[in-house]
């Protein structure tokens, strides 16, 4: 199933701009959120810079791997918990990224592993996929948090769209009756569901 089909089932007219989070926020800001390490927007940029984490900092020995991986695991666990209760489809730019970059981000050395992941993620020429394997979810999450690959996941049963990239996921919740449950899953991991509306 393609993402466009899901959005149409939810009653939306689908256009290229529909996938854009800013467009969703301008249309229904009350349904837009961020999964973030911080409970609210930090206005002091200097302080924010001192606490923000990027995988590039790990590679350049500016922050410890242990600290980064501990934070990364929180984001992975949230996706895994939501995945347990939902059918998940998604799209990714995985196949557009050079194998060398992906291997470096995942610390993999074998071309066989890379080809296996590509085959599982991308059957045929379409970028849409169904996510049925825990290990693929973990790979997508790691590549997203490490800002290597951009993926959009739709958790069909809860009607959630999550853009997986960096340590601040963009979230669109079509069915706000699930808001409390989603917030509980996120808070249990020590992260926050921050509202788009300030």
What does this structure look like?
This protein has nine helices and seven strands; from the N terminus they run ααβαααβααβαβββαβ. With 198 residues, it is of the alpha+beta class. It has one domain (3-195). The chain has a seven-stranded antiparallel β-sheet. A hairpin with a 3-residue loop joins strand 5 and strand 6. The termini are far apart.
Average pLDDT taken over every residue: 84
Computed CA radius of gyration, to the nearest angstrom: 17 Å
The biggest sheet amounts to: 7 strands, antiparallel
- The count of DSSP E runs of length 2 or more, i.e. the number of strands, is 7
What structural class do you assign from the helix and strand content?
A: alpha+beta
Q: How many helices?
A: 9
Portion of residues within helices = 40-55%
Strand residues, percent: 15-25%
The separation of the N and C termini measures 34 Å
Helix and strand sequence: HHEHHHEHHEHEEEHE
Uncertain parts: none
The strands making up the biggest β-sheet line up spatially as: 3-2-4-5-6-1-7
**Quaternary structure state of the chains depicted:** single chain
> How many domains comprise the coordinates?
1
Structural shape: globular
